[in-house]
Amino acid sequence: MAIRRISSGGIYEQKIGYCRAVVAGGFVHVAGTTAQGADIPEDVTGQCCSALEAIGKALTEAGTGFANVVRVTYYLPDAADFPACWPVLAETFGDNPPAATMIECGLIDPKYKIEIEVTALAAEG
């Protein structure tokens, strides 16, 4: 079985020893993803959009997209922040909503308000 690893060059990938996504067994497993870049938005909605953008890039590189996401997990330090993200998530997944779980927990850095992890079907072929 072939395994393909996709790196986004995020600051924690090399420090911790992981990659943004792994394509294996007919699926694309995207690691928990927080807001990316030098200017991390302070609000949860901005961070959600930034994380989804990084996830979208990994899915595209893997040859798939949000329409093929079958599972998503949201991690938030404050569950009360989650409703602010709902419109963004509904727009992102559209007519293809995945199975979902939201967990309230601490994240790697207090500046982060949301982390998102997805599993998608890999492109056939």
UniProtKB/TrEMBL annotation:
Q: Give any Pfam family that matches.
A: Ribonuc_L-PSP
Concerning SUPFAM superfamilies, the annotation shows:
YjgF-like
Which PANTHER family does its entry note? BLR7761 PROTEIN, YJGH FAMILY PROTEIN
Q: What is this protein called?
A: Enamine deaminase RidA (YjgF/YER057c/UK114 family)
User: Which organism's genome codes for this protein?
Assistant: Martelella mangrovi
Give the organism's phylogenetic lineage.
Answer: Bacteria, Pseudomonadati, Pseudomonadota, Alphaproteobacteria, Hyphomicrobiales
